[in-house]
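In this notebook, the sequence line spells out the residues, with the fold written below as integer tokens. This is how one looks.
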Amino acid sequence: MEKNKVTIFVAGQKYNLVTADSEKYVTDIASKVETRINSLLSQTSMSKEKCAVMAALDFCDDEAK
């Protein structure tokens, strides 16, 4: 299985990933995460880290339903 090296930026942080998924898929997912975090940041005074955790919980909740 071919591995792709993909660099993404989420919440101002750089992540270098190695994945079997396409670069477009990974960057699209990163964009969704970034959008969710930024939405939470604009609605609350929580830290970036707490917004990231809340975004993760939101995504897991969506997945479970």
Q: What stands out?
A: The chain has a mean pLDDT of 94. Residues 29 and 49 are 18 Å apart (CA to CA).
